[in-house]
Write a structure and sequence with these properties.
The protein is of the alpha/beta class. It is built from 10 helices and 11 strands. 36% of the residues lie in helices and 21% in strands. Strands 1-2-3-4-7-8-9 form a 7-stranded parallel beta sheet.
Length: 279
């Protein structure tokens, strides 16, 4: 894999540790041909790790400025990682059209029910509290609610890239609240793949958990990735970078897994077109 592209990039506009320009410079230094920014967004709401609505225009202006400043060295794109919370916000082109993003990543970070909500990739203690108190200690229930939200997002929203499809695995190594080998879990994956197939999106292989030491594996798992391939769902490789050091984390290893499964290329949808990388 010689050409490297990353479309999942966070900065100090949300929960990243480096400025957009620092991220562009890092991408250039590691030989990337294109870099897409994907600030956390939850229009019309925000948390302390989302871009505040009052900062949206500043975010867009800064990324567009970098597009021109570095146009002779790298392609730069401006997108959002848009959260899905049923009944509140969703990753949809109609919702974000006034900001004219180059692309949207659709992601589910929250598990919610009538008792409240928690972030499934939050700190270990937060996830533990959520499973114990919102799901009565029922890990299967928590996981099923997560994938139900994924299917609702895929069936009701309009976006290009599907972010970390099995993020619910992030804290499972420590908390062990479900078993990926259980038949019910595999049924959840198969049902979710069917929704993704109908949605016509690109799924990402995401290396963010590896860089941050949360897991020694990618999203999605190898089993899940095989299901995606069998369903004809295209993929891209992203690092979910929150600082300059992680901007191309494990790209070669991710490409090797994709090739092992059977993929021949990566697809990066942007502004109505596709950037293609041969594997």
């Amino acid at each position: 894999m010689q050409t490297k592209i990353n479309f999942h990039t966070h900065t100090t506009f949300c929960d990243g540790n480096n400025s957009p320009e620092e991220m562009v410079q890092a991408a250039i230094n590691c030989g990337m041909s294109a870099l897409g920014f994907s600030g956390h967004a939850m229009v019309p709401f925000a948390s302390d790790w989302h871009i505040a609505p009052r900062e949206f225009q500043n975010y867009i202006n800064e990324i567009n400025s970098l597009k021109h400043k570095y146009s002779d060295k790298i392609q730069v794109f401006c997108g959002f990682e848009a959260d899905f919370i049923p009944g509140f916000t969703k990753p949809d082109k109609e919702v974000y059209k006034s900001f004219s993003p180059d692309y949207l990543i659709g992601s589910v970070h929250y598990v919610q029910n009538e008792r409240g909500f928690y972030t499934v990739d939050g700190p270990v203690e937060e996830v533990k509290f959520g499973v114990e108190n919102l799901n009565n200690g029922n890990g299967k229930q928590a996981v099923c609610q997560y994938f139900e939200a994924q299917r609702q997002m895929l069936e009701s929203s309009d976006f290009e890239i599907w972010g970390h499809p099995d993020l619910v695995r992030k804290r499972n190594g420590i908390l062990q609240f479900f078993d990926e080998n259980d038949s019910w879990y595999k049924e959840e994956l198969n049902a979710t793949v069917k929704s993704a197939q109908k949605a016509g999106i690109v799924a990402e292989i995401n290396s963010g958990a590896i860089f941050r030491g949360a897991m020694n594996d990618f999203y999605p798992s190898e089993y899940f990735l095989q299901l995606l391939f069998d369903a004809g769902i295209p993929i891209c490789i992203n690092s979910d970078a929150h600082d300059v050091k992680g901007i191309d984390c494990k790209f070669e290893e991710a490409a090797a897994r994709a090739k092992k499964i059977g993929y021949k290329e990566l697809i990066y949808p942007v502004a109505g077109k596709n950037l293609t990388v041969k594997l």
